[in-house]
Amino acid sequence: CAGCSKSFGSEESHYSGIVEVESRFVRRDYCLTCWVGKPELFSFWLTLSAKKEQRTLEDINAMQDFFRKLIATPTEDPTREKVIYLTALLLMRKKRLKGAGPSKTRDGKNRLPLEKSWDGEILEIVEPSISDAELEPLKASMESLFHSESAPVIDDVPAAVPAVIEGA
């Protein structure tokens, strides 16, 4: 922001404008808070900042550490099982986990065998049933944890997964 020097988040609404400085035109961007004073601009428009898709290595390492802590203690908590499963799927996309054979059924639950890339150990996680209504809040919670510009802060967790974080 040209007013307060704040960095814009992914797809954050802000005002962009053109100002004439020493006979040349310069673009200036303002957050919504600084726009209240409406700076003198030649022309302006409301826009969104670019979507930030880049994930840092620290985010992946933080996700892997989070997963290690999740699986360290066996659980029967259905919410925790869902978070473990979703975290495992994200780690599979990043090649930190890979499938280690077909799903198995034990104790009335489908279990997915996985191989951890960091030590080669095989583990099994529960494949929970996740309804469409549950998926979006869980997905949003996971994104807020790991898709930021810096490593996640465990204390700053959305309410959808509080029981999981307390045990981490």
Give me the count of strands. Answer: 7
SSE class: alpha+beta
| Total of helices | 5
Strand percentage lies at 15-25%
Distance between the termini: 36 Å
Give the helices and strands as they follow along the chain. EEHEHHEEEEHH
Helix content: 25-40%
Tell me the radius of gyration.
Answer: 22 Å
Uncertain runs: 148-168
Shape: elongated
Largest sheet: 4 strands, antiparallel
**Overall mean confidence score, pLDDT:** 77
Q: What oligomeric state do these chains adopt?
A: single chain
Note the topology.
Elements: E1 13-21, E2 24-30, H1 32-35, E3 43-48, H2 57-72, H3 78-93, E4 97-99, E5 104-106, E6 109-116, E7 122-126, H4 132-146, H5 162-167
Antiparallel strand pairs: 1-2, 1-3, 4-6, 5-6, 6-7
Summarize the structure.
The protein is α+β, with helices and mostly antiparallel strands.
Explain the overall architecture.
The chain is α+β, with helices and mostly antiparallel strands. The chain has helices at residues 32-35, 57-72, 78-93, 132-146, 162-167; strands at 13-21, 24-30, 43-48, 97-99, 104-106, 109-116, 122-126. The strands form 2 sheets. Strands 4, 5, 6 and 7 form a 4-stranded antiparallel β-sheet that branches. Strands 2-1-3 form a 3-stranded antiparallel β-sheet. Strand 6 (109-116) and strand 7 (122-126) form a beta hairpin. Helix 2 runs antiparallel to helix 3 (78-93). The longest helix is centred in the middle third of the chain and has 16 residues, at 57-72. It is elongated and about 75 Å long. Mean pLDDT is 77; it is low at 148-168.
